[in-house]
Amino acid sequence: MGIGLMNGLWRPRVLGAWRIPSQGPVILAGNHAHNIDGPMLIGTSPRPLHFLVKKEAFVGPLDPFLRAIGQVEVDRSGADRTAITAALRVLSDGGMLGIFPEGSRGVGDFAQLRAGLAYFAVRSGAPVVPVAVLGSARKGRLVGALPPLGARIDVVYGEPFEAAAPGGRRTRSALDAATARLQERLTAHLAEARRATGR
């Protein structure tokens, strides 16, 4: 249903989806430049994808829909332990967890990463697959404006990698090192995705 909706509105081009492990826990780390990035990834993913979604989105008819497709509600005002437990359960059950490591919508260049991605990667040991969504936010348009109907949007997956250092320590220094490693790999993937797509 998701891919049908995305294809009905835009022209998603998915590159490198074969890089996503076919089974076992995976963390999908994506850039975030527009509100449609999450739906685009959920709709085109080859595996069920459970995103951490801000609680403000769980309103009206969207509330039961988001819960039915397995999205995880998170309160961004503080450390939401219920959301953290639910996200770790997705990974312990062998599922795929989606995270926008910048925390909220912005330029989408991975310039500022919050610690959440490193925490889940170090705590779970799950491989991280970088993904770049390109073409959802367009220059010269209002931030909230949707891409023109029929516009091409590229979804580019990178190689999975381990963010945690060998040994599995969960200290503050280990999380800081994982965050630095994540930022380096995600930024490099975004640059490669832009070269590959001409974006």
Describe this entry's structure for a reader.
The chain is α/β, with parallel strands linked by helices. The chain has a single domain (2-197), classed as Glycerol-3-phosphate (1)-acyltransferase (3-Layer(aba) Sandwich). It is 35% helix and 18% strand. It has helices at 2-9, 37-44, 62-68, 81-92, 116-124, 172-197, and strands spanning 11-15, 26-30, 49-54, 72-74, 96-99, 128-134, 152-157. Strand 3, helix 3 (62-68) and strand 4 (72-74) form a beta-alpha-beta unit. Helix 1 crosses helix 2 (37-44) and helix 5 crosses helix 6. It is globular and about 45 Å long. The protein starts with a helix and ends with a helix. The model has no long low-confidence stretch (mean pLDDT 83).
Domain module tally: 1
What gross morphology would you assign? globular
Put simply, the count of helices is 6
State the CATH topology. Answer: Glycerol-3-phosphate (1)-acyltransferase
Tell me what portion of residues adopts beta-strand conformation: 15-25%
**Overall average pLDDT:** 83
Q: Could you name the CATH homologous superfamily?
A: Glycerol-3-phosphate (1)-acyltransferase
**Shape-level CATH architecture:** 3-Layer(aba) Sandwich
Number of strands: 7
**Oligomeric description of these chains:** single chain
Biggest sheet, open or closed, and with what strands and sense? 7 strands, mixed
Order of helices and strands: HEEHEHEHEHEEH
The whole-angstrom Rg is 16 Å
Q: What low-confidence regions span 5 or more consecutive residues with pLDDT below 50?
A: none
| Helicity, as a percent range | 25-40%
CATH class type: Alpha Beta
Ends apart, CA distance between termini: 28 Å
The helix/strand class is alpha/beta
